[in-house]
Fold:
Amino acid sequence: MNKNIIVTGGAGYIGSHTVVELLAQGYKPIIIDNFCNSEKSVLKGLEDITGKRIDLFEGDCTDKNFMTNVFAKTKPVGVIHFAAFKAVGESVEKPLAYYQNNVVSLLVLLEVMKKQNCKRLVFSSSCTVYGTPKKLPVTEQSPTQKAISPYGNTKQIAEDIIKDQVVANTGLSAVALRYFNPIGAHPSALIGELPLGIPSNLVPFVTQTAAGLRNELTIFGNDYNTPDGTNVRDYIHVVDLAKAHVKTLDYLYGKSNFYDFINIGTGTGTSVLEIVKTFEKVSNQKLNYTIGNRRAGDVDQIYASVDKSKEVLNWKTELSVEDALKDSWNWQLNLSH
Ligand code: UD1
Structure:
């Protein structure tokens, strides 16, 4: 049986971990990546972990000829679409680049999927679509709010585009996974997050500070309406998140003209200070940190209701924040050597 799955952005952080889990479940992942925010060395890591050669097509998802050729050659039965820009701050400075890359790639992908009769799609969305939630935990019934950043807006627009394509009776079946905060790395320390330049996300900043690449971590505010005053997020191990994608592909089998969106988190909130303390414990390092001003756009607290993912996908997280921070640290140590 054909088990070919296109993984756009498959050399990226979440994409590469998903390639490992796809292979473990008998799928045949085929990576499409333009390496604009990832490294070729990821392929070596993937091959060392899985013992398999990974198919790769290097190119851009906004290039219709390229995408048509890849689909014609590989005849995929499904797509997991990760390829996108993801830096919130940068998106405010370069909105057109974000709309061009994140929205146009999806339009091209959906058109090529339709022409080539490929009917299953898993899309990377974000809890950012909920904005500042009124009630916690955030369920899928919680209203979405107008995005603050162009990045967040591209996720909302993309969800709408996919839904409209399903409503048009194209036979497409699709699920948008609304991720909370992915952290961690593969336990082998052979793949992990590779932020370009100064990281804007918390955990890479923490590990780089502990490794001596940054002087100190600034905690963005300790006067929020939360138990210890620092922001609360739902940090999910990237390996658990990767497994959720495979479960979603399985779930889409046999469905037609189907669209849904599902939260992917742990269901537990962790504060920035708790991340720092847990990191210190698992790494045996003292972390240099200071309390700074609030960062624009940060919500007080957000964490997921995981009832739907459990019920619909028969999936839940297996790894803890401690596991994730330990794996992130081992990955950082591996990178620094
Ligand atoms: C952000 C985006 C989210 C996106 C995700 C991945 C928003 C509201 N959310 O999540 O849509 O999918 O990034 O790119 O923009 N922090 C510090 N010091 C630092 C870095 C972070 O204190 O140096 C704090 C932040 O204030 C926040 C927490 O750590 O409370 C997590 O921040 P971050 O890793 O950037 O993720 P989010 O902002 O939650």
